[in-house]
Specification:
single chain; alpha/beta
Length: about 375
């Protein structure tokens, strides 16, 4: 028995990481939001106090268990002869880049007072563990421990978990807007339509609203709109060009219809035959194309201008969008001539090759300019 401590001491001294920092990660800052604790928290006693305060504020939060697990890991390493310190670092509620930057800054601050040569990460899930590469920039991670809470699998607990999610859907505005708001609008419109006996017409309206909600959520249209509508010059530019572009795109439809020969539309033929007539299609596209392209160009130009004013380094891709839009126009215009005047399909080749050449030359010039600018920045740094 007396030889074992000597062996442990020898192993510890031989280890390349014998001065360890046990880090409990709280990326969404529950310890600060719920318990009002300012991080970083360094030391066994203050970490215990932080875990107790968090557990009292929210007994169901798993982060308090992670802190206790970090303290236990700290004591186990102390008993094995390591030089150890335990600490809690936290990000911000919204997670993301700001949270990772805050965790990195707090880790550097701890290392100023405790010069560890290895880290033991303690977390309660994959979200916290995603910060590990950030910590590895300043300190080698020698071990990662995930805290998994033991819970009952009885039916009662399953109902409790299900009830918690239902409460989240009902009272959390982030979820209730979609899971309750959209069905509520559909039911309200359906009920009013039933009262006034518009049950047949309302089906199309309900399907359109539901489809629009799915599209908005699937493509993050609401988040994009919230970022564009911020009271900044870039936000106002994007709003103006987006609205103007959409209006122009919509107005291209009546512009295309007005260019179709009225004699072709008024001819005594079936509707399907009119729609599939290539002359009618060609005339419609020829009339709609200029307005449609101007609308799309307005949207692309607004994106370019807002990124340029905001200093966002994405001008190359924004300029290339506009160049491709311009280069494609002659090809589409020639396509309408083929549809209307029954020209040969080979007449598409010259404008297509010209547009491709213009795109390739523009892309080459822009990328060379970008690389030259980058090289100048590196030399100046």
């Amino acid at each position: 028995m007396s030889q074992r401590p000597d062996k442990v001491e020898k192993d510890v001294n031989a280890s390349t990481a014998n001065k360890l920092l046990v880090i409990c990660i709280d990326r969404d800052n529950d310890v600060g939001e719920k318990a009002g604790i300012i991080t970083p928290v360094v030391g066994r006693d203050v970490c215990i106090e932080a875990a107790q305060r968090l557990a009292l504020e929210d007994p169901e939060d798993a982060d308090s268990n992670s802190i206790f697990s970090a303290i236990k890991t700290y004591e186990d390493l102390i008993s094995k002869g390591y030089q150890v310190e335990v600490a809690i670092v936290a990000g911000v509620k919204s997670r993301g880049v700001e949270a990772d930057e805050k965790i990195l800054a707090e880790t550097k601050k701890i290392l100023e007072t405790f010069a560890a040569n290895g880290a033991v990460i303690v977390s309660d899930g994959e979200d916290d563990e995603s910060v590990i590469p950030v910590i590895q920039n300043v300190l080698a991670v020698v071990s990662v421990q995930r805290v998994v809470m033991k819970v009952s699998r009885s039916v009662e607990y399953s109902y409790a978990v299900f009830g918690k999610y239902l409460k989240m859907i009902a009272y959390d505005s982030k979820y209730s807007k979609f899971f309750l708001g959209v069905p509520g609008i559909l039911l309200l419109i359906g009920g009013i339509a039933t009262i006034f006996d518009y049950t047949a017409e309302i089906f199309a309206v309900l399907v359109s609203i539901l489809g629009g909600a799915f599209v908005i959520r699937a493509f993050d249209v609401d988040r994009a709109w919230s970022s564009w509508s911020k009271p900044t010059p870039m936000g106002f530019i994007r709003i103006f060009t987006m609205v103007a572009g959409i209006l122009l795109i919509l107005s291209s439809v009546p512009a295309g219809v007005s260019t179709v020969d009225s004699e072709l539309i008024g001819a005594d033929t079936e509707l399907i035959t009119k729609i599939t007539d290539k002359i009618i299609i060609g005339q419609f596209v020829a009339g709609a194309l200029p307005i449609l392209w101007i609308g799309m160009g307005a949207i692309f130009a607004g994106t370019l201008l807002s990124n340029w004013i905001g200093g966002i380094p994405r001008q190359i891709s924004d300029i290339l969008r506009i160049i491709v839009l311009i280069a494609l126009y002659p090809t589409l215009a020639q396509f309408t001539n083929i549809m209307i005047y029954d020209e040969s399909s080979f007449t598409l080749i010259p404008p297509l090759l010209g547009g491709l050449a213009a795109t390739l030359v523009s892309a080459t010039i822009l990328f060379k300019k970008y690389r030259k600018h980058k090289d100048q920045e590196m030399v100046s740094d």
